[in-house]
Design goal:
Blueprint: H1 8-32, H2 37-47, H3 52-61, H4 77-90, E1 94-98, H5 104-116, E2 121-126, H6 129-141, E3 148-152, H7 155-158, E4 166-171, H8 178-185, E5 189-197, H9 204-216, E6 220-225, E7 231-236
Helix pairs in contact: 4-5
């Protein structure tokens, strides 16, 4: 059973956010595509039939970047459910989101915390004041604001104010910064903590050094899931 189907208000709210996100992604991709509308339509049809690795390659071949700091881009419904289920299984106290956009992934995490019924919370981080305001507004609209804390500003500075040990960290900032932000937050992750990084295939060139770094680190166990835009999933085995 999909738990979100039992909460009509939450489901409708997320559906609307996902629909708007998809429109922004398509609009952004079209602006970068050097071809006609018909050629773009054909490319989009082909793209939707590909797996995660193939999708990453087709974006690279057409010089299309789906990450854009100016847009309010969010996780897909499938990725949201994946984050929700991960949190439901792990029953975390503290979740850290490195790059929250307008808080769609935040809502999935917060709903898991509500279902678990513990006193945990998700720390959402964003550089944009407007996005931070939207995170709070969206969480309030679906009654999940008590599970959300906001860190506004440069994430490399704001994470210095975190004193708690983190159970789950979701990395979704600009892909070229993955390795640096992981290193910066490594001390906050206790043994057994889970880390998740999005866009490993869709931003493959930018995430290559991060992937290489993880594969050589014997204090973690990690695997790239052939799912969505490529998801790095790992566990902290011991303190480094």
């Amino acid at each position: 059973m999909n738990l979100f189907s039992k909460n009509a208000k939450l489901k409708s709210f997320l559906d609307n956010l996902h629909s708007e996100n998809e429109k922004q992604l398509i609009f952004q991709a079209r602006n970068q595509f050097n071809g006609t509308d018909e050629e773009f339509k054909q490319l989009l049809t082909k793209y939707n039939t590909y797996n995660a690795i193939e999708k990453g390659k087709i974006l690279e071949e057409n010089r299309i970047k789906i990450q854009n700091e100016e847009l309010a881009l969010s996780v897909s419904p499938e990725m949201g459910q994946f984050l929700f289920m991960t949190a439901m299984i792990l029953k975390p106290k503290i979740i850290l989101e490195l790059g929250s956009s307008i808080g769609v992934s935040t809502i999935y995490f917060a709903e898991a915390l509500r279902q678990i019924n513990n006193d945990g919370f998700v720390i959402a981080t964003e550089l944009s004041k407007e996005k931070c305001d939207n995170i709070l507004k969206n969480a309030e609209l679906v009654g999940l604001n008590q599970y959300v804390k906001i860190l506004y500003g440069d994430v490399f500075e704001t994470i210095k104010n975190i004193n708690e040990k983190i159970d789950i960290v979701f990395i979704d900032i600009w892909a070229s910064g993955y390795m640096e932000i992981f290193e910066a937050t490594r001390g906050l992750l206790k043994p057994g903590a889970v880390f998740i990084a999005d866009n490993m295939y869709s931003a493959g060139k930018e995430t290559a050094l991060f992937k290489e770094y993880l594969d050589k680190d014997d204090t973690v166990y990690n695997i790239t899931l052939d799912f969505e835009s490529g998801v790095e999933y790992g566990i902290i085995l011991k303190n480094n």
